[in-house]
Amino acid sequence: MRILFLTPYPRGSAPSQRFRFEHYYQTLTDSGISFHTQSFLDDKAWSVLYQQGMLLQKAAAIFRGFLRRTFCLFTLTRYDFVFIHREAAPVGPPIFEWCMARVFRKKIIYDFDDAIWLPNASDANRFASSVKYYHKVASICRWACKISVGNDFLADYARQFNTNVQVMPTVVDTEKVYRQLKDQDTPTVVVGWTGTHSTIRFLEPLLPLVLKVCHETNAHFLVIADKSPAIDFEKFEFVKWKEETEAEDVLRMNIGIMPLGEDDWSKGKCGFKAIQYMALGIPAIVSPVGVNSKIVDHNTNGFLCNNDQEWEAALRKLIADAALRTVMGKAAQLKIRTQYSKQAWSNGFLKLFS
After folding, report:
1. pTM for this structure?
2. Which of 55, 222, 282, 328 is surrounded by the fewest CB atoms within 10 Å?
3. How far is the C-alpha of 266 from the C-alpha of 277, rounded, in Å?
4. For domain 2-168, which CATH number applies: 3.30.530.20, 3.40.190.80, 3.40.50.300, 3.40.50.2000?
């Protein structure tokens, strides 16, 4: 069997790719399956993607991407399956997907882990948003032979157009990377959040409350991201995200938080922050939106909080009680290893190509 992976970003650069399918590449090799990967954006394009302005560089990157995808069409006879993550091209109608499915008659596995049919552009990419065809997601779903999505909300959307839908959670490797257990007996308690500049908007409404509780309980607040937020707090620490130290940096936290909004975009999120925290034995406090309510078992391995009062009570309870953090952390790690790990889902990933 031979598989072509078409991705938006260079290999190893984007969390959605690394934790949805790239860490299964070795599983494919071990199973005797060969594959090839092609990203729409190259490394040069990736370096400017989220920077303000630079329209000429971004336009040149898109042009190079379209050239790569065009030449790719003439190699399709080599492959049994084409695995498309999110879309073959980030702008314009689904021309490549239509050609692959209708002209070349290839079996498409279509994968997405966000509500990508909804407009959701960053300030740095407003122009790109104006030329995206968000409604093309429905068409690609119709043309695919199978669809892989990150949660039930996304599956319900996909099943409107295709009955062959498989829920594949975004997971972590609990044997090689996310294998340590947080020691909760620390002199300082650290409340933490990890994410990107595009998701920090979910943290901002809760931030005054978190900083207030940290100030009153002498706890520290940590953010791990690609860019530092503007936070004026004497016990605030920013750590720039690096793939090489990802798990070690998260282990600085005693408590991990994941607030979300009450909209369809939030319902499409796959709870990955909570999975990261819990895999390392860090209790998670999350908004009960979408899949979060399945990942976190309230009052067992974390807390589901609906309002400021519940958020404050959960934060104060965990900050004050190291023994509770330890018990919850161990329960959290067990759940991730059995239900949200690469090891638990390797066979499920292989079944996509059966």
Report:
1. 0.91
2. 55
3. 19
4. 3.40.50.2000
